[in-house]
Write a structure and sequence with these properties.
This protein is an alpha+beta fold. It contains 2 helices and 6 strands; from the N terminus they run E-E-H-E-E-E-E-H. The chain has one domain: Flavocytochrome C Sulfide Dehydrogenase, Chain A Domain 3.
Length: 130
């Protein structure tokens, strides 16, 4: 499965199908990309992948312009957190997901970001496991 630098899997970002092994789909940290390695990113990739597989199985084509978001919170104390966030769009010319303009990083840690981080975590767990 490994195909990039003997470490990462090259994928078609419209379906997350391996570029080496047909009908094998790869998401998350294994994907070769300049994308964050986070649970939110893997969850976002999984949604594109699942929708693409449904389309392919029904004779359709995957969305030609997928867009995903990523937010990652880091707890810096028992109550405070900071975040990094961005939106990624498919670039057909590069055949890759690229960061959209904007996005950003927290200026400083705060209690409210700690609340947001815990809520994002609960939402991702619910989305993935339930």
């Amino acid at each position: 499965m490994v195909s990039v630098d003997n470490r990462w899997c090259a994928v078609d970002f419209l379906s997350y199908e391996s570029k080496v092994h047909k009908n094998v789909h790869v998401i998350g940290d294994s994907v070769s990309a300049a994308l964050p390695k986070s649970g939110h990113m893997a969850s976002s990739q999984a949604k594109i992948c699942a929708a693409a597989i449904v389309e392919l199985l029904s004779g359709g084509q995957p969305d030609p312009n997928p867009v995903i978001a990523n937010t990652c919170y880091s707890m810096v104390s028992d109550k405070e957190a900071m975040h990094v966030a961005n939106v990624y769009k498919y670039n057909a010319e590069k055949q890759a997901m690229v960061a959209a303009e904007g996005g950003g990083v927290s200026d400083k840690a705060s209690d409210i970001e700690g609340i947001y981080g815990r809520r994002l975590g609960r939402n991702i767990w619910a989305d993935v496991l339930l």
